[in-house]
Design goal:
Helix content is about 35%, strand content about 15%. The protein contains 8 helices and 11 strands. Helix 2 (about 55-60) crosses helix 3.
Length: about 300
């Protein structure tokens, strides 16, 4: 397929473009940064600078595509004004899906967020109602980032109602790679009391890229939403015990696939997408949460 990857200069977009090319697809990437006039590196995807906030740019990069993996977004709400986060994420997604529909693109993969239910950046205290969190959890966002991602999922619902396009929204957990595992997860490996609203969940960027390839290649009809997480938690500790110790009795505990399960369930993706994660924080960090020497990129 001819596949457009938006946000291709980001950590998720760049890994996804490489995974799609490895799977045999013809990849074009787009992002806000200007390209360079240099000899192409073998296997490097084509690149077009575009601002998806501008409808004309979205239509220009969409022509001739069979599928889209939409990674472009402001990735969290704390380093930009709220209106900027919301407007950027919502309008870029609207323009991209509108262009995809008008050009007859058959598959649109929307990178949403684990934060959609509202438990990551709330202004007033809010925690998940139960664990592991799954796609059926009530949607109760407060912040502009989670709202923008939820509205993006609603745009996918509308798209399949008004056209023949097929959509998948992927909600990744906190995305890690060899450059940030130690910084982000090392403290939790050393000390379980270093809390995170997703109950010690994470996802390796290369497993996420594999999941996005599966989504782009999927023939599932309509619009489906999937959480993507690593199956284990940071530290590989008993999840039920940790939730009771640090959060008390207020969170319902549901059946776990394994004792050290993630606080986010990816069971639906395993069943419907064939998602099969291959990597763990243990591949990168030692028992003290320090980066292992000479860790190669998967």
């Amino acid at each position: 397929m001819n596949v457009l990857v938006t946000g291709v200069r980001g950590k998720v977009g760049s890994a996804t473009a490489k995974a799609l090319a490895k799977a045999g697809h013809v990849v074009t990437g787009t992002d806000l940064m200007r390209g360079v006039f240099e000899r192409a590196v073998p296997g490097e995807p084509a690149y077009i600078q575009a601002d998806l906030m501008q409808p004309g740019d979205a239509f220009a990069v969409m022509r001739g595509m069979n599928a889209v993996v939409h990674c472009a977004a402001i990735p969290e709400p704390t380093q930009n004004p709220p209106a900027t986060v919301f407007q950027n994420n919502l309008m870029a997604t609207f323009n991209a899906i509108e262009a995809a529909i008008r050009f007859g693109v058959s598959r649109f993969v929307n990178v949403s967020s684990e934060t959609v239910p509202g438990f990551f950046f709330p202004e007033r205290p809010f925690l998940p109602h139960y664990a592991p969190v799954d796609e059926d959890h009530p949607i109760l966002p407060q912040d502009p980032y989670a709202l923008s991602k939820y509205f993006g999922e609603l745009l996918m619902d509308a798209a399949v109602r008004r056209s023949d396009i097929r959509c998948i929204s992927i909600r990744p957990c906190w995305v890690q790679h060899e450059g940030n595992y130690e910084r982000n997860l090392g403290p939790q490996v050393r000390d379980a009391s270093v809390l995170c609203p997703n109950f010690w969940s994470y996802i390796d960027v290369y497993d996420l890229a594999d999941a996005l390839v599966l989504a782009a290649q999927s023939s599932l009809p309509g619009h489906e939403v999937f959480y993507i997480a690593s199956p284990d938690n940071v530290g590989n500790r008993p999840l039920a015990q940790m939730i009771r110790k640090y959060y008390g009795e207020g969170i319902e505990l549901r059946p776990l696939a394994r004792e050290d399960a993630s606080g986010i369930s990816c069971a639906k993706a395993v069943k419907m997408l064939g998602y099969s994660p291959k990597r763990s924080w243990r591949d990168y960090l030692d028992a003290d949460g320090r980066l292992k020497a000479e860790k190669d990129t998967p």
